[in-house]
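Example 9 (inverse folding). The structure is encoded as follows.
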């Protein structure tokens, strides 16, 4: 099983909580994480020619990247519990899915706040951060 990498906005409270949510439900530990602001995240952005857009969650899987709602749904598909059923929304056209994704992404700092820096994860999950 190859690891999937999630790039996230490290100063966004909502994004940080999303990472914590994924960590709790990723029972097979298939996801690794990197902040878009960090060195590892920036190297991956360059390697995969990802547009430097901090308003999107990025999933790198099998040498391909996914963003916005596609990334979120593909992540949900791998989580334990009923979250995997959200992947059914992938049948909706991407512009419709991304319309709703963008509403949250564009307002995330206003609604959830912003941190000055990315927090260091606890020791037992630190190995999953690049």
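The amino acid assigned to each position is listed next.
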């Amino acid at each position: 099983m190859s690891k999937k990498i999630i790039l996230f906005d490290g100063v966004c409270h909502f994004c940080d909580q999303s990472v914590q949510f994924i960590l709790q439900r990723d029972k097979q530990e298939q996801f690794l994480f990197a902040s878009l602001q960090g060195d590892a995240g920036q190297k991956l952005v360059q390697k995969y020619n990802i547009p430097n857009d901090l308003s999107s969650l990025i999933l790198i899987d099998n040498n391909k990247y996914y963003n916005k709602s596609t990334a979120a749904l593909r992540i949900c598909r791998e989580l334990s519990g009923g979250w995997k059923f959200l992947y059914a929304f992938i049948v909706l056209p991407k512009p419709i899915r991304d319309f709703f994704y963008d509403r949250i992404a564009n307002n995330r700092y206003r609604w959830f706040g912003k941190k000055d820096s990315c927090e260091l994860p606890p020791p037992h999950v630190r190995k999953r951060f690049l």
